[in-house]
Amino acid sequence: MSAGEHNRNHIDETIKTQTLEKLVENFVNKGYPEFKPIQHTTQVVSGINHKYKIQVGKNAYIHCKIHENTKGELSVISVDEGKTLSDAL
């Protein structure tokens, strides 16, 4: 892999994280001091369901479910706050 591809992938992940952060913060109508996805699973349905465990502060985590439709559009299904690192996704 060339250095350019590596940088592009890093930028892609940054953009994905920023997009996810905006979606989630708009859904819950508040911001978080930190936003670091640490676990991600997918389920293929009519589109894709994405489940994320996200660190949003010191020892503070949320779980969120995002649906990606067949056109690639994203929508938040749920956000569960008050989670811990050891909580199952």
From TrEMBL:
Superkingdom assignment: Eukaryota
Keyword rRNA-binding part of the UniProt annotation: no
GO CC term, one of those recorded: cytosol
A GO term for molecular function: cysteine-type endopeptidase inhibitor activity
Family matches, as InterPro entries: Cystatin_sf, Prot_inh_cystat_CS, Prot_inh_stefin
Keywords: Protease inhibitor, Thiol protease inhibitor
PANTHER family: CYSTATIN 14A, TANDEM DUPLICATE 1-RELATED, CYSTATIN FAMILY MEMBER
Family according to the record: Belongs to the cystatin family.
Protein name as catalogued: Cystatin domain-containing protein
